[in-house]
Amino acid sequence: MRGWISRLTLNQTLAVAAVALGALALFAAPYPGSKVTLDARELALVVGTEADHIEAPELAAWILENRADYRLIDLRTEREFAAYSIPTAVNVPMNVLTDAGLGRQEKIILYSEGGIHSAQAWMLLRAQGYKSVYMLKGGLEEWKDQVLFPAVADNPTATERARDERLKSISAFFGGQPRSAAAVAAGAAATPAMATAATPASPAVVAPPSPAGGAKPAAPKKKKEGC
């Protein structure tokens, strides 16, 4: 199931989440006294243009710049979060997301392992009036592929060399290690080095402060949420 989900595009993931959340809205109120509303036309526009997603390299640049205008939310379990999380992230499982004290005016970025939970959480927050909600495209899997363990050329040109040096520098900062482009092209999803470094220690960076009107999300103990 998880493997199938991980192969979905962002649009397909959102479509699956739309069906799931639509069923939830029709047959059960997710929270006592809650009211879920979705603007189908607006949702279709966002899905079609992929307007509400953040690329992994873009997020990495924000962290390197110590930007303080976003709130990064890790939707996975406490155990998964403790094993490894993207720097500046706060662990908030989806079943307590709407009670986490998020500010309605702050920029919220969601991520899970592959993407399905972040898509569901995105729809839940949008349905409850949060406008500046984004997803990390590809989730933690894409973060590993593009930031922690990026593919670099074996015999780089002058242009590729400059790009690869940048990738190596970013990878090293986050505790990762670049992969050989030839190995990746040959179908090696992960080198031994990547396998042993799949959960590098997070670098010391300053987390964005909680904005006025929104308390910093807590990480309450909750049962396993899956992907």
| Portion of residues within helices | 40-55%
CATH class of the largest domain: Alpha Beta
Any idea what the CATH superfamily of the largest domain is called? Rhodanese-like domain
C-alpha Rg, in Å?
18 Å
Q: What is the CATH topology descriptor of the largest domain?
A: Oxidized Rhodanese, domain 1
Sketch the topology as an H/E string, one letter per element: HHHEHEHEEHEHEHEHH
Describe this protein's structure.
The structure is a single chain. By secondary structure, the protein is of the alpha/beta class. The protein has 2 domains: about 1-140, Rhodanese-like domain (Oxidized Rhodanese, domain 1), CATH 3.40.250; about 150-195, no CATH class. Helices cover about 40% and strands about 10% of the residues. It contains 10 helices and 7 strands. The strands form 2 sheets. A 5-stranded parallel sheet has the order 1-5-4-2-3. Strands 6-7 form a two-stranded parallel ribbon. Strand 2, helix 5 and strand 3 form a beta-alpha-beta unit. Helix 2 (about 10-25) crosses helix 6 (about 115-125). Mean pLDDT is about 75; it is low at about 1-5, about 15-35, about 190-200 and about 205-225.
